[in-house]
Amino acid sequence: MRTIIRVCSPTVVILSLAIALAEAQDRPHADRVVFDVHLHALKAESFPDVSKAAFGAHRKTATGQVRDSALLLRRTLEEMDRSHVRQALLSGDPEAVRQWAEMHPDRFLASYDPNLSSPDQPAEVGRFEKEAREGRWRAMGELGLAYAGRPLNDAALFPYYEVCQRLGLPVFFHTGLDGPEPQVLVSPVFRVELGDPLLLQDVAIKFPRLRIVIMHMGWPFSDHALYMLYAYPNVYVDTAVVNWILGRQLFDRMLKEAVDTVGSDRILFGSDQMVWPQMIGPAVASIRDAPYLTDTDRRNILWGNAARLLGLTDK
Prior knowledge:
Structural class: alpha/beta
Mean pLDDT: 92
Order of helices and strands: HEHEHEHEHEHHEHEHEHH
Number of strands: 8
CATH superfamily: Metal-dependent hydrolases
Largest sheet: 8 strands, parallel
Strand order of the largest sheet: 1-2-3-4-5-6-7-8
Shape: globular
């Protein structure tokens, strides 16, 4: 048997390496592709103007607000492309959510915002189920119950959760923080304690197959959020806004504790860009650059967990 050894010239080897490097740069690596579970379509002109609230951490949001709706969409897509955010789950203003999702169905999935002010709630629930079965909705929330003075375990939402459990749709809950000066700028009845993740025990017990997402890692109740992850296998958390509004040391402590305690398979990436699309990049970097995360952790948080939760096709 003869062994044939092919010898390539140095020029050929260098050229091949250059081509491979160029191709790698043209497409993001598998662990760099991102799904953002917490992205908002908003009427930017009516968003609270926080430009004068420049105290503490809010100095990061006092400037740079996008106040034009068309510009907000364009800038959001630009920032998504820059950070390899392939798709996002949209919540926010219902009309803006519909418009963005219809204009860019390859980039945005729509999440449902229930109208609790309607006097005919059974009809609202029935309409939601019909539209969800038709594929219009992929999730429910962000449910900002605390802004309406409602606790996270408000039973008025239970009929909606029954539908979501039956259809396998996750429900995203605003938990914990808001600001600056939330009672002045957002809602006079907002109380942070209404968003304590421990209130979701009642939901998790009554709906054991409902996939519950604790947004903002529950901060300032991050230990309570971690307990919910620890106790209930159908509970998830997202990293939105706390990954850029808080100091890096505080965010890293929360994320590292979560990964060390329960693993990375129920932690979801979110940006919560609101009217600051430029914060999508720092939000993504908070995961990509975290030295305590393994490559598997990063893939889980940036894409894999959302793909499993929302039934996405392989990237």
